[in-house]
Amino acid sequence: MSIREVKVDGLCVDVKFLVMGPLQNNVYVISDGEAAMVVDSSAHADVIMQSVGDLKVEAIVLTHSHWDHTGAAAELRELTGAPVIASTEDAPYVENPCEGDTSHVGNPCKVDRIVGSGDIVQVGGMQWKVIETPGHSSGSICLFCIPQFGNHPDGYPVLVSGDTLFAGTTGRTDFERGSDAEMAASMKRLAMLPDDTVVLPGHNSLTTIGAERSTFARFGWEPDEH
Description:
The chain has 226 residues and is an alpha/beta fold. 18% of the residues lie in helices and 30% in strands. It has helices spanning 45-52, 67-70, 73-80, 91-95, 180-190, 213-217, and strands spanning 4-8, 14-20, 25-31, 35-39, 56-61, 84-87, 113-115, 120-123, 126-132, 141-145, 158-162, 165-166, 169-170, 198-201, 207-208. The protein has a seven-stranded mixed sheet, with helices on one face. Helix 1 (45-52) packs across helix 3. The longest helix is centred in the C-terminal third of the chain and has 11 residues, at 180-190. The protein is globular.
């Protein structure tokens, strides 16, 4: 089992992530130094808990319902007592994975809170704004935090993007409940964020909103319009 832990410096909140699972997911542990949320708990709840350490897990956030992002959520919920948070569209697939759809085969997990665009996920002193970003799945969400609501007011704003936005590209839209048109609309939505926002994707390398202007432009959102 090859698992790598990476700490990210310079952000408005404390961030580290584990690269783990068969598809090498980025599993994020994000905190204000005391309270934490775990994002997209792919696998190995015991390893995630080791990374959490003395932090109090107050939320388990699922950016979407695909199995490689939800595999350890139920066990992590049992270990921490933290609520599992997902979108209205994807929550049913978290709770009842579809055997006929390989993107949703996985371990069922109860969803404790449903969220949508504009909702706030409060974790300790952190406030995360929910942005609905369908395209990869119909219920994909991102979470955005500005320095005002982090524990490092001089750090960079943060976007947790799941499989919506990657370094240099977007998530796939050819799965069931995926949509090119919805992904294009989601890219326009994310293009409104500040250039210095650091993007924490579900796989591969971190990026920034500014670095993804060419990605947004491919969907008809010109860089000088943001």
